[in-house]
Design a protein that fits this description.
single chain; globular; 67% helix; mainly alpha; two-stranded antiparallel ribbon
Amino acid sequence: MPLTQGDPPGGRGGSLGLALASAVAFGGSGVAAKPLIEAGLDPLHVVWLRVTGAALVMLPVAVRHRALLRRRPALLAGFGLFAVAGVQASYFAAISRIPVGVALLIEYLAPALVLLWVRFVQRRPVSRSAAVGVVLAVAGLACVVEVWSGLSLDALGLLLALAAACCQVAYFVLSDHGSGGSDGADPLGVIAYGLLFGAVVLTAVARPWETEWGVLGGSARMDGTPVAAWLLLCWIVLIATVVAYMTGVVSVRRLSPQVAGVVACLEAVVATVLAWVLLGEHLSGPQLAGGAVVLVGAFVAQRGTPGRPVESVVATGGAPSEAGQGPGAAGEPAVVDERLSGGGHGT
């Protein structure tokens, strides 16, 4: 649904705090999941545990928004298939083969891929700043994967991370269809049902009855330090999914897309730092520099989509006031497009 821009009086600091908490929570998902995978759990089983556990916690929200099942079944099914099951399964499979930070940085190509979708699939012009963002993101990615070394990272892991980025694109496109007009869908309801649909899809694909349940009763190692496996799973379900989504949605409601987008980019920074400290995954200097360029490119691409309809913004790249659509124009409040503002985390 359209999200009204602006903090409540005196609440901007709190909103920024929520956005930062969401970025930290999302950024810690891979760091907690990788030890479980290395301990013997299949990546798909970890995803199933995460999604199913979060779906059960969010069940009261789904009941509250049960009318969405009748109004927007295709949106909910698509969100569950791509933005929940697809993104997380691809991401967790990727981190089982390549460093957490690299996988998440590749996933941050999603904003650039959205603009490519607009330009070459929908055949609409994009703004100059958006095109610059795409170029920066691709150049940064070349440094992250160290193309001059002949792609020394695992090729399948890179493809899985790119698949996660493509599933994020599907989330953005679905949000575009689900956010506008009088039939807009409440983001919390979409998340709750997306988790439920994702759990159903993953149950059929992951075959959770074959899970090595004994792993959860033991310990997993984080760079040699034993940690209770059940504690890592609780973090993934409660903090990295439920709390992360809830704080993310609330912060996006209150912040401008540019501010929310910048804070969301901290997710990749948090994931990289945590993987460095807790998992011993050290990135090279060029990879760190490339990661910074990817994030700058993602931010520039996001700035190409300010708070007004995508049809006009991708064509002009101008501010809302240029088209008479700023705050107060025609007596209507400004609206914030959630798609590229950090509200669509899937990791």
